[in-house]
């Protein structure tokens, strides 16, 4: 094992979903971007990340165990609610 892979978690369905969710939180401006140390918001990319998670839920519907399914459903719900709030706030800011 080299230095680059020594600190990476094992790739599982759960870690993959958590990675996508973390990216979505950064894109929503909920979490500091680790590359810039700033809060940044990109709702278009956040919507794309949420769409990927939704597609994964649809494609894996009957193959996940209960814990994985609950985790994915919970993450998707939280991200979708945060997206709606951010989208509404953004719409209010641009309304004349």
TrEMBL record:
It holds the Pfam family DUF1844. InterPro entries: DUF1844 (IPR014995). It comes from the Bacteria. This is DUF1844 domain-containing protein. It comes from Candidatus Desulfovibrio kirbyi. The lineage of its organism: Bacteria, Pseudomonadati, Thermodesulfobacteriota, Desulfovibrionia, Desulfovibrionales.
